[in-house]
Amino acid sequence: MMRAVPTVPRAAVAVGIALAMGLAGSEAWAQDATPSAGPLGPLSGFIPFLLIFVLFYFLLILPQQRKQKKHRATLEALKKNDKVATNGGIYGTVMSLSKDVVTLEIAPNVRIKIRRDAIADLRTGDDEESK
Predict the structure, then answer these.
(1) How far apart are CA 38 and CA 31, in angstroms?
(2) Could you tell me the pTM of the whole model?
(3) Domains of the chain: which residue ranges?
């Protein structure tokens, strides 16, 4: 059983050769050109990158740092009988605290231990569902 070998049309080969010759010719012209420096000198190319970094800092990095700082303060201020919600969506009441572990009561006589940083936020009376 013989397989058919795909062939490239001669016109496509001719176009490819012409493009390659044209590109090779343009390299010589590009080497003769001297790069022009902007009004601020060689650093003018870095100004857009600097502006993008400043924009990212104020729109992304700084708000995230503020949020982390607020969350850290919330975790440090935890006390017994606080009502909390975990990252996994479990609601409970703080029964005991240690440096890294919090014991939550999620139902009468049902307690679980979780890492302190797994607590998403404190619940207030307004957040609770009415029974």
Answers:
(1) 19
(2) 0.60
(3) 70-125
Question: What's the CA gap between 123 and 92, in Å, rounded?
Answer: 9
CATH of domain 70-125: 2.30.30
Place of tokens 């601020």: 40
pLDDT digits (tens, 9 = 90+) for 75-108: 999 999 999 999 999 999 999 999 999 999 999 9
Helix (H) or strand (E) holding 4: none
- Cα dihedral value 16, 19, 24, 30, nearest 10: -150
What is the DSSP code (8-state) at residue 26?
H
What residue spans of 33-113 are helical by DSSP H? Answer: 47-56, 62-76
What is the Cα 14 distance to its own chain's centre?
48
Ramachandran assignment for 104, one of left (phi > 0), alpha (psi -120 to 50 degrees), beta (any other): beta
Q: Which of 89, 91, 80 is nearest to 123 (CA)?
A: 91
Identity of residue 26: S
Q: How far is CA 18 from the centre of its chain?
A: 45
